[in-house]
Amino acid sequence: MEENVKLDAEYWEHRWQARQTGWDIGYPSRPIVQYMKGYSNKEAHILVPGCGNAYEADWLAAAGFMNITVLDISPTAIVSAKNKVQHGAAINFVCADFFSYHGQFDLIIEQTFFCAIPIGRRSDYARKTSELLVADGHLVGVLFDREFSYSGPPFGGSALEYEPLFKTYYTFEHFETCYNSIDTRAGTELFIKLVKR
């Protein structure tokens, strides 16, 4: 990516309109599905930022979760998500900038959003997720545990880089190599479950 390119709403809208969505795996993330199968509170308020086509949200709704909010900065992404989901009644679709969004959630699901924001905003992400969570709320999902050979997005990193960003706001229940990544990402992801302090 060129240095002068801003990862703003215009950038992401262009990517969606041009169908440059290489991050889209076409189905819900395996690690998130596996984790949520054991999550019993169907009334939990759940946020999926940078939702894209909202596969995880659609799976959650099909599994009986009733209060799901998906958020994306691209209007085209939101339209695409609305067109793809089969269980939209339980899903609140929001087109907004994550960093200026307000709400309160029990759970935030991280799936290829953290890696799409500029590296310089990662500390803002940690703080903002904490602000959006209720006391003892959870941030759950996957982060890349690798570097990329090209300038992002996506942007890579490692556990050693990520830990200091989150430790101010969270206690760590899981922060380890993901054992059930999709095949093309095997060995290159961390599964995280962080609890708001």
TrEMBL record:
It holds the Pfam family TPMT. GO terms for molecular function: methyltransferase activity. Keywords: Methyltransferase, Phosphoprotein, S-adenosyl-L-methionine, Transferase. InterPro entries: SAM-dependent_MTases_sf, TPMT. CDD domains: AdoMet_MTases. The keyword Transferase applies. One of its GO terms (biological process) is methylation. SUPFAM superfamilies: S-adenosyl-L-methionine-dependent methyltransferases (SSF53335). This is Methyltransferase domain-containing protein. The lineage of its organism: Bacteria, Pseudomonadati, Bacteroidota, Sphingobacteriia, Sphingobacteriales.
